Amino acid sequence: MALGDWIEPRAEGIYIPAADAWVDPSRPVPRALVTHGHADHARGGHGQVHATPGTLAIMGVRYGDQAGVPVAYGETLRMGEVDVTFLPAGHVLGSAQILLEHRGERVIVSGDYKRRPDPTCAPFQPAPCDVFITEATFGLPVFRHPETHDELDKLLARLRAEPERCVLLGAYALGKAQRVIAELRAMGYDDPIYIHGALQRLCDLYVEQGVDLGDLRPATGEAKEELRGRLILAPPSALNDRWSRRLPDPVTAMASGWMRVRQRARQRNVELPIILSDHADWDELTDTIREIAPREVWVTHGREDALVHWCGLHQIRARALDLAGYEDEDD
């Protein structure tokens, strides 16, 4: 029998018949195992959701109360004939890899993950397995993310250099915004940080979950003079809309792994690109595969062909999965 033939990758998600459960399904199902709270992995309407407490809290903010079963990191559940264990993924608050054990085989669905330190979530935990199902959002050799502090130093330097302006930083509402704030606090930046209203609920949730974000204030309603020399965070969609026009000559910045691609920065009219990703870069993807040493790698969610080719060059069996509905909500 083929390795992992009890796993059924379908367009709408990964189905495990022996557990009668789906991993990150893109449509409502009776039982869902959810890796993390981003909308391309966590959807509302499921009959029952198994996820970490952090992920369930995020889904509660986004979709209302869930019929949720909280699963702690390292806890193993028996579902039908399958043992299911949630392991930290290092992507955002509550993010998990899902280890599935059946018929003497171990399959890990990694969801989205990164290997860089992040003060807002538990670090990625490598675990041995027979099949490793990996994302490939930045699965090209051109994507090698710079050091986090070097990128944030650029942000702080711009604030100091032009005190009559403000820096308006686009950052995704879940994960990226809170990570930027927490990283800056760890670097000693204690000034108030102003946030767009769309970030408030999730920033509040992170604080409730024990992540210290320091002095956060709503940007809306503040006098223009008060915002000079300040850092303002907003969702990327707000960078060039009417809301931003009331700000004092903003330096438009964006925190994203895609800021490595100059054309993307130009398309968004980004003056100050900050290369900061919550996904593994090329070296982290390949180093993780080497460290885990699976017998097979299944690749999804991104640039599958390059990573499949790399696996072939290193005598690792690999194939691409064709899963629908995955978008780069958080990059």
TrEMBL record:
PANTHER family: BLL1145 PROTEIN, CLEAVAGE AND POLYADENYLATION SPECIFICITY FACTOR FAMILY MEMBER. Keywords: Exonuclease, Hydrolase, Ligase, Nuclease. This is Ligase-associated DNA damage response exonuclease. GO terms for molecular function: exonuclease activity; ligase activity; RNA endonuclease activity. It is an enzyme of class 3 (hydrolase). Its EC number is 3.1.-.-. InterPro entries: MBL (IPR050698), RibonucZ/Hydroxyglut_hydro (IPR036866), Xnuc_lig_assoc (IPR026360). It comes from the Bacteria.
